[in-house]
Amino acid sequence: MEEQTRTIVQQSLNALLENETFLPELKGDMRKTAFTSLSAILSTPNQIHKSFLRIPLEEGEVIRIPSYRVHHNDALGPYKGGIRFHESVNEEEVVNLAFLMTLKNALHNVPFGGGKGGIIIDPKAFTERELQRICIKYVRYFNNVLGPDKDIPAPDVGSGEREMDWMMAEYKKINQGQPYLGSFTGKSVVNGGSLGRREATGKGVYFTFRYLLNDYVKPNEETLAASSNPFAKTAVEYVDRPLNVAVQGFGNVGSVTALEAFRCQHIQNKVVAVSDRNVTLFNADGLDIPALVNFTATNRGDLPTTPEQLKEINVSAEIRSREEILTMNVDVLFLAALENQLTDQNKEQIKARIIVEGANAPTTKEADDYLSEKGVVIIPDILANAGGVIVSYLEWLQGRETQFYTEEQVHTQLLEKMKNTMDIILPQYFGDPFPLRQNCYIHSVTRLSTVLYKQGKLY
Ligand code: NAP
To answer: What residues sit in the active site (predicted)?
Structure first.
């Protein structure tokens, strides 16, 4: 598990151990034992499943692809988490992502545990037929540990509704006569998916930023400006003024976040930069985000990389290197690509004073500590990117009831749930000097600890 996650969870546990109003019935040695159990439970996954998928390629070669399914903790409900298709997937990363899912679900009161999957491939290097084979084999190899009441995967980097449809079809075939609609979420709507699921994470990411600035800081501007809280001081500087925004990653999460920013009527945003694994596109007057979204839809998800391609879609932008987006002179930086993007190496060059983590774990501990020390407001992954799992929960519910909601009902419930969490967390954040990540972790760990104690697990 990554050092940052482990450290913050341990700090949260230490704070709870000292706070005798928390589980006051636990006293003396019993209290110490319970907290040692808690630390052990949270710092290790329940199970790590690993398989080597045997895949015949179209050209005749047969390869074996390492793949994972990690079950971190199921105290709150069945394991839940995406399956990442990426060449950099490794066991430690999948464990860390599963742990973040446990914390995320606890934070937003979603009745799921934490799980995650990974397949070590570059999906763009395989044909559609080969990818389908990979999905089918994944389900065959992990069938015993998956299911609507055991572990429910969803898309993550490199996967989407097409892959979830293939996987659900295989699950249905293997488990004939069993309920199957709740076995995978993020499916296409015709296959039992939820309206609004595709946009859910990106919408939620943007909503956390908008809600923090417009619905919390703005009405409390005077009080916050007078407080000594460093994050309050930063936030008030950004109320009611035009903001330059950059979005790293232009996939499922990033493209929707960029569109939300582009269309937002509540805040004067200008999306001046977006990026993917090939390029950063920059325009100081603002980019035409809908045109870029249309382009990626017909170009395997890639942004334009040449002046000719930009001209073709009538988009005016400078083509810069992929990494430049991170250190540009912008007010707000949305991170929606991969982990470990803000690091010890680039932390001193980061100019944005508000950072929103659409991706999981995009900020290393060194960068996080450094930026927090400087009063940068970082909306952490487990708070910002929970839209996907919240709507996955709604999809799972709809699948069980075979009753489907309208897109508007889905988005209203999504934003309501995120608002409820923000209403609990933000007053604490602006009231004490801890970074928002730590506030969120304390909240999640408190909920998990209480549930584990009541389930008799802390001995
Ligand atoms: P995605 O659709 O695969 O998009 C990933 C984006 O990041 C693509 O634009 C990709 O570019 C870009 N990218 C990849 N490597 C990069 C690099 N080294 N530098 C800059 N950009 C790079 O994945 P996603 O679903 O949007 O997920 C993005 C992040 O959000 C991940 O951390 C994921 O765990 C997290 N997340 C996703 C969901 C969800 O519902 N999808 C929910 C919660 C959290 P190319 O297209 O050129 O490869």
So the answer is: 116
- CATH code for the domain in which residue 344 is found: 3.40.50.720
For residues 154 and 270, membership in a common domain is answered with no
Mutate to test the pocket of ligand 1, among 84, 104, 253, 279 (most ligand atoms within 8 A of CB): 253
Cα→Cα distances 186→77, 196, 296, Å: 19, 10, 20
The pairing of beta strand 354-357 with beta strand 332-335: parallel
- Work out which ligand 1 atom sits closest to the CA atom of 325: 20
Q: Which residue has the tokens 């076995």?
A: 183
Give per-residue pLDDT as tens, 268-311: 999 999 999 999 999 999 999 999 999 999 998 999 999 999 99
Q: How many CB atoms lie within 10 A of CB 197?
A: 27
Tokens of residue 76, six digits: 């709150």
Q: Which sign, positive or negative, has the C-alpha torsion 448, 453, 456, 458?
A: positive
Residues 91 and 119 in one domain: yes
* Structural tokens at position 279: 């390029």
Nearest-angstrom CA–CA distance, 82 and 93: 13
For residue range 181-236, list pLDDT tens digits in order.
999 999 999 999 999 999 999 999 999 999 999 999 999 999 999 999 999 999 99
Cα angle, residue 451 at apex, residues 450 and 454 outer, rounded to 5°: 85
Tell whether the torsion through CA atoms of 314, 320, 322 and 324 is positive or negative: negative
Nearest CA to ligand 1 atom 27: 157
Name every residue whose Cβ is closer than 8 Å to that of residue 243 and which is 6 or more positions away in sequence: 267, 268, 269, 270, 331, 332
Structural domain harbouring 227: 198-379
**Whether residue 341 sits in one domain with residue 206:** yes
Both tokens assigned to 221: 């501007």
Is there a contact between 94 and 70 (Cβ–Cβ < 8 Å)? yes
pTM: 0.94
Pocket lining for ligand 1, CB < 6 angstroms:
155-158, 201, 248-254, 275-278, 301-302, 322, 336-338, 358-360, 385, 388
C-alpha distances in Å from residue 366, one per residue of 352, 361, 370, 450:
17, 12, 6, 31
Q: Measuring CA to CA, which residue among 370, 427, 421 is closest to residue 227?
A: 427
Q: Strand 62-73 vs strand 47-56: parallel, antiparallel, or unpaired?
A: antiparallel
300 in any annotated domain: yes
The reply to whether 116 belongs to the active site is: yes
Q: Are residues 145 and 286 in the same domain?
A: no
Last residue of a domain, one of 140, 155, 182: 182
